[in-house]
Design goal:
Shape: globular
Strand order of the largest sheet: 2-1-3-4
Radius of gyration: 20 Å
Helix content: 40-55%
Distance between the termini: 37 Å
Bound molecules: zinc ion
Number of helices: 12
Order of helices and strands: HEHEHEHEHEEHHEHEHEHEHH
């Protein structure tokens, strides 16, 4: 078992090393710790877990902000420029490429945590695609031809493991002296992520139904991993308003399949989810895409594992109705 993991991890290391840019830096903060800047919550959490006490880790995007339509301020750019390491997911942070160029720092190590993961094509809303391109310039999902790639890999524990591995490589590159600690911290956290994956596997086998209605298309990887189907109201970004005929389709689907729960998110206005739920006589419940934490989440001391555990419980309940 262990041997297999080592082999896999080595293959991934070789792959990821080639994808990281920058080189080792000696510009750590005055307390001797690395200055690590991350983008949104899961990147912050994964990085903190790997870094332990060896780095000051900050998240540029405030916990309660929705990252899909966020842009850096002048202060954020300064922090980015002074960072020893910058960790981001990729694709969600449409601003990152340009910001990294503007806030140039040749010694900064950049970790695009989703790089090396085979990304799925997202669900583009065809009719509205042209409008979105024109009006929604903040929403820069990476376009490859007409394909839109789905960035939401952090919502699947096994893919989160790969992101953690990319972060280990980045921190080690910037601070080789603490290589062993980064490895040890990562292994401990990966153990928790694998246990989480096991809970999802066990909890979602033998559920009564396989389809779940979500506020935006954030759960594609999770659905694929555990043999489920997500029926998203909005596309890859939560701010997209669904077209009227798509609303009608979802309502019809929910009625035909007697769906009893319509999921909504904590960082986005649930008005469309509420409308659909009312129309089909379903209730609403939270399925959290972990694009940030609310004050309420923080009060409850919820972290990535805690929110994912709540997500699993919410899914189990809805899929067994
Ligand atoms: Zn999203």
């Amino acid at each position: 078992m262990k041997k297999i993991w080592v082999t896999k991890s080595l293959a991934f290391t070789v792959l990821s090393a080639a994808l990281l840019s920058g080189c080792a830096s000696n510009t750590a903060s005055s307390d001797g710790k690395l200055n690590v800047v991350t983008s949104f919550y899961p990147m912050y959490e994964f990085t903190k877990q790997v870094a332990g006490d060896h780095a000051n880790v900050i998240a540029l995007i405030p916990p309660g902000a929705e990252p899909h339509d966020w842009e850096p301020s002048a202060k954020d750019m300064k922090q980015l420029k002074n960072a020893n390491v910058f960790v981001y997911n990729g694709i969600v942070e449409g601003w990152a490429e340009q910001a990294l160029k503007s806030a140039e720092n040749k010694n900064r190590v950049v970790v695009e945590a989703s790089k090396g993961i085979e990304l799925m094509e997202g669900l583009a809303e065809e009719e509205h695609e042209e409008d979105h391109k024109k009006e929604d310039k903040n929403h820069k999902e990476e376009a490859h031809g007409d394909k839109i790639l789905d960035p939401h890999v952090w919502l699947t524990p096994v893919l989160a493991v790969q992101e953690v591995e990319a972060i280990v490589i980045g921190l080690t590159q910037a601070d080789p002296a603490h290589k062993e600690d980064y490895r040890k911290n990562a292994d401990a956290y990966i153990g928790k992520l694998k246990a989480l994956d096991e809970s999802f596997k066990t909890g979602l086998t033998n559920v009564k139904r396989k389809e779940f209605v979500t506020q935006h298309a954030a759960f594609g990887y999770l659905a694929k991993e555990y043999g489920l189907t997500q029926v998203p109201i909005a596309g890859l970004s939560p701010e997209e308003e669904p077209a009227p005929d798509k609303m009608a389709d979802i309502i019809k689907f929910a009625k035909d399949n007697k769906v009893q729960t319509i999921f909504f998110e904590t960082l986005v206005d649930p008005k469309v989810a509420n409308t659909i739920a009312k129309e089909v006589g379903a209730k609403t419940a939270v399925l959290n895409p972990l694009e940030g934490l609310t004050d309420d989440d923080k009060k409850k001391n919820l972290d990535y594992i805690g929110v994912m555990t709540n997500n699993l419980e919410a899914l189990k309940k809805a899929l067994n109705e």
